[in-house]
Amino acid sequence: MTIDPALAAALAEESVPAVAPDAVWIERVGPRQYAGFNGRGARVAIGSTEHDGRFTPGELLKLALVGCTGLSSDVSFARRLGPDYKARIDVTSVKNVEEERYTELVEKLEVDLSALEPDARDRLLTVVSRAIDASCTVGRTIKSGATVTLSVIDEASGETVAHTSEDGI
């Protein structure tokens, strides 16, 4: 696997600009290659499928979904199964290639529930389902949809030169 030197430098950079902890942004490091950052210092390599060692935006969306499911269910599972319980969450998708969008995302959460009695298992699954439904922001957003807007700013002048929304420019 070959990593682009600009991407490696961007991902290895120790200094993160002073930004809000919840800030998220990407910077271009090469053709169809970006480095993603957050205000807490995390970094991720983003690229198209022809570049190894990078996540595609679609993969990041799916990781966000299963990550949110895991975090939303973690306290409930840990409370009943112990703090060191093991879990794995996979996600598969159905993609409408013509529309360039996913029409279905299917999560599969694997966890050992064998130590629980059937009634306790059912109660835990109800609690977990409610926790995910109530606090998984990513899942809730995907299910209900979100308005997406984009402003294009001329870096030299600071002027907004284009603004797009779901209705187009």
UniProtKB/TrEMBL annotation:
<dbReference type="Pfam" id="PF02566">
    <property type="entry name" value="OsmC"/>
</dbReference>
<dbReference type="InterPro" id="IPR036102">
    <property type="entry name" value="OsmC/Ohrsf"/>
</dbReference>
<dbReference type="InterPro" id="IPR015946">
    <property type="entry name" value="KH_dom-like_a/b"/>
</dbReference>
<dbReference type="InterPro" id="IPR003718">
    <property type="entry name" value="OsmC/Ohr_fam"/>
</dbReference>
<protein>
    <submittedName>
        <fullName>Putative OsmC-like protein</fullName>
    </submittedName>
</protein>
